[in-house]
Amino acid sequence: MLEKYESLIDGLISDNFGVVDDFIDDEMLAKLTEKILYFQEEDLLKQAGIGQSDFFQTNSEIRRDLIRWLPTQKVNVQTEQAFIVLIEEFIQYLNKTCFTSLISYEMHYALYQKGAFYKKHIDRFKSDSGRKFSIICYLNNEWKEGDGGELLLYLPNKTLKIEPIGKRCVFFKSDELEHEVLTSFKDRMSITGWLKDK
Ligand code: OGA
Ligand code: NI
Q: Does a structural domain hold residue 55?
């Protein structure tokens, strides 16, 4: 795992983003996918908002994904437990090797149904949520060109599209890198985490 953490960090340092394939294994992919499909079935995914608490609003012109937050207490998270461990280890690794002072995280599942998108944005809200790093892991087993839903990164000198291929993980700074999710032409699933210094 350390090698994967290393490549995410190396990418961030040299290219402003890191990407690693096979960040999770097939078993974890299957479990997390099963869980988000269950949430969809039970109608437990909700329209995502923009801004936080008092400023929270939904705006379907800006984003159209459906989300479900993971509980912050470690109850009822058997399915996600192994993924949470990966994230917590990554936080420790970052704090040790990069002198960050991350102390918490938040995570949600996201489903972009056919036609959904998320316009250009950065992940750190104006109200300052403490988000330092964004980490996204895709849960799409069979993704092919033409399915849409690419993550578009606005790098300093160019834009770059990343396909949301299953088990792939993308990592970048929440308060710096502008990005968007292009319209998806089929259901697009992911689990997204933010590593925080507050
Ligand atoms: C987000 C986001 C990107 C993606 O949830 O803030 O930008 O590829 N997600 O899912
Ligand atoms: Ni984002």
A: no
